[in-house]
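Researcher: Next entry in the queue.
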Amino acid sequence: MLARVPAWCYLPLLFLLYTALAWLGSLEGEFAYRWAWVEGSNLLGIDDAYRYYLSKYAFTSGQIYAWDYVLPASTFFFGAINAFLGSEIFLARAVIVCFSLLGITCLYRAIRMMNLSLWTALGAMAIYALMPVVVIMNMSFYGEMLLLVIFSAAVFFYLRERLLLAAFLISLLPLARPEGIFLLAPFSLALLMRRQYAAFLMTGASGFCFLLFLLYYFDGDLTLLYEWRVEIRRIWSLFVMPNTYAFPLLGTFNPLWVIPAAVGLLVPGMRRYWPIWSGAFLWLLFYSTLVATGLSSYESRYLIACFPALTIGFAALVDYINNQVAKDLWAEYSRLFSGFLVVFIVGEHMLQIDPIKHRMGGERVPLQSMRVFNPDFVRVTSEDLEEISGMSRKISHLFAEHPRIDTLLVFNPDIFYSLSPYIARTDKRVFLAPLPQQVSIGVTGGSFFTYGQFGRKYAYFDLYEPKGALDGIAIYAGYLDAPETIPRYSFGDRRLFVVGYRERLEPADLIDMPVQFYQ
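Model: Structure for this entry, 519 residues:
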């Protein structure tokens, strides 16, 4: 019965679901909820907030395009949305949801163009579109959202033989997320093998233009592009975050989805689509190697690049079993079982959300995952939101009233959602200081590790009283165990400190013994 409903009729339901959750997670209005807890991390937390604020630099500073924390396509895309909407967070998320639904539609159409049945296409897309990690990305300011949309649209046009348009979209993938290069490579090779030379060259056009810009900006020294990531890995390896230093692929994502999806890409008729899915396997192999060797940490969102291919594979295997393996009476039972399997996987994937998993006993089926770090949804009250807004207004006033204050160091990421766009249009520097003081003291001897789009993209700050011979004066947004002589402003439990600083590229000290992040 559900399969007889036109596919487009499901889009309004998805839109309502996505926007309702976006409204709950947007830190504006009368209240909000921190609900996007996955594997110990709030996916609508620090990185989402920082990327949202960095989009305000899209039309004010060229240096933002020379930083691979936010790649050019994502910076421009989110910057245009925020500039048009005047920094209304929920409205921005609603527009992002609309683009996400466009990507979902393109992927569904692509599956149907592969001659897979309506029911299997809808089932595979239900798993994909209702998976919490995907839902969260599809309303976020992460580049993963744009990667999904661009890739899905590229696959659609590739199957329609609109090769130049597909090639242009494919060329944008590495400018949305770094792993986009793995999705680009097989397409580029396939076009070369088909002697589609114009389309082949087009796949590298955007990346080549970006390379020329980087060579100009860095004066030929491309080490400045990645040295900040090397420094992050050096610091991150010195403290323990048990929710990230493992690779629980089959704990986060149900093996009854992952394994059949991978097998489905090898069934008869699917191998000829290798340009569409082989890049996903290349990225999965590369990323799992990084985690296994300690060169990266595990985050569920980093696997997003694999999901369109896995969605196609799952639909292909179910369709093959239903129409080729099962015969006569067994075909009906096979389709019924497939429907139950889809419903089970959709429901079980809800346990990606930590508080839901906690309420269901903390177990995953059929494999157990890591323990729950965030057992509850956290309500953000109107008082909390007013405190956040008050902090942001105070930061703007301090910058305006005290010209010597030239830097903002942010540990509390909530203020990124309400910081005035005016700051992005000045010469004031805004750095993310992601580590709490107790970890900074334990790992670096007291230096605060930060990163931002300025200079070499990272820096260490040693903080002092704002007087005497210093490199400058900064505002620190977060808790500090500091002497009473350092000026501070309180907003409920939140604090702002005015501190003097000395800036360096090396910490005061660096220890070898790991520090426990979670106590």
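Model: The CA atoms of residues 68 and 225 lie 7 Å apart.
Researcher: Noted, moving on.
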